[in-house]
């Protein structure tokens, strides 16, 4: 019993650790080298390279007759299973649409209200709500660390190199003034960014290492906040539809009463 308790506590501690420890996305840029861009994901001491992918030599065993026949049979069964799943999904979707149409028709007969299809306004409201929440939370949680960023201005003409150097300097200065005060960039130092001019080189180059980090619980918080914003917009749309439906029901009942009074007067 004690052993099971210890194992459960260890698993719980590991789960909490996974939620708290930040996930780092490491980007390396080096245009002057063989690899222009490298991307890796790191959790604690475990690093998983994403780009560039290692080139693997083809396994000649896969091209033998028996292996090819097995591969063909496997693909055939997979295609049949996918076709069955697609057919089942289409039937389920059709049944769902049929029930939805029957429900809408019953609702229309009772209230005289025909629900309008939600258009561009609803989509814009939803996108704006999600953008506001996600940018606010994302800017609070995401951390950007610039280990080094070296930009070298170069061209075939020294005059163009000087112009390019001045343009890059001004652009990076604006970039720094804009983002250095945010939570994402506030830990970075201006000395991490260097700009050079090479009057002998033919092409400009960039060399840098930038790490983006965010914890798993922060990702979950982003998803929850986004879901809450979407639900708020959906509830507002439903309230608006309910108000229109109540007004339609009131008008239908008033028209029915008017018809009854008219019939009584005719008698």
Please write out the topology:
Layout: H1 2-20, E1 22-30, E2 37-43, E3 46-51, H2 65-111, H3 120-141, E4 143-153, H4 158-179, E5 193-197, E6 205-215, H5 216-266
Parallel strand pairs: 4-5
Antiparallel strand pairs: 1-2, 1-6, 2-3, 4-6
3D architecture notes:
This protein has 267 residues and is an alpha+beta fold. Helices cover 60% and strands 18% of the residues. Strand 1 (22-30) and strand 2 form a beta hairpin. The termini are far apart.
Strand arrangement in the largest pleated sheet: 3-2-1-6-4-5
List SSEs in N-to-C order: HEEEHHEHEEH
Quaternary structure classification: single chain
The proportion of strand residues reads 15-25%
User: Roughly how many Å is the radius of gyration?
Assistant: 31 Å
* Number of continuous helical runs: 5
Largest sheet: 6 strands, mixed
Strand pairing plus helix content: what structural class? alpha+beta
């Amino acid at each position: 019993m004690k052993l099971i308790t210890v194992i459960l506590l260890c698993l719980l501690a590991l789960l909490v650790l996974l939620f708290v420890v930040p996930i780092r996305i490491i980007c390396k840029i080096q245009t002057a080298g063989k690899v222009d861009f490298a991307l890796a994901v790191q959790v604690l001491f475990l690093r998983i390279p994403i780009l560039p992918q290692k080139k693997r030599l083809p396994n000649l065993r896969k091209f033998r007759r028996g292996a090819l026949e097995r591969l063909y049979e496997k693909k055939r069964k997979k295609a049949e299973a996918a076709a069955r799943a697609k057919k089942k999904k289409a039937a389920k979707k059709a049944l769902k649409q049929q029930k939805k149409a029957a429900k809408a028709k019953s609702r229309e007969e009772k209230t005289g209200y025909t629900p309008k299809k939600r258009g561009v306004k609803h989509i814009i409201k939803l996108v704006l709500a999600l953008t506001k929440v996600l940018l606010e939370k994302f800017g609070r949680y995401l951390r950007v660390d610039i280990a080094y960023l070296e930009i070298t201005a170069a061209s075939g003409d020294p005059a163009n190199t000087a112009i390019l150097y001045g343009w890059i300097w001004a652009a990076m200065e604006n970039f720094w003034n804009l983002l250095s005060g945010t939570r994402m960039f506030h830990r970075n130092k201006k000395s991490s960014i260097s700009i050079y001019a090479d009057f002998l080189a033919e092409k400009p180059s960039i060399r840098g290492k930038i790490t983006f980090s965010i914890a798993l619980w922060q990702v979950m918080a982003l998803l929850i906040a986004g879901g809450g914003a979407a639900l708020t917009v959906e509830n507002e749309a439903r309230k608006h539809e309910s108000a229109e439906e109540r007004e339609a029901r009131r008008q239908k009942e008033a028209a029915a009463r008017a018809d009854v009074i008219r019939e009584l007067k005719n008698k």
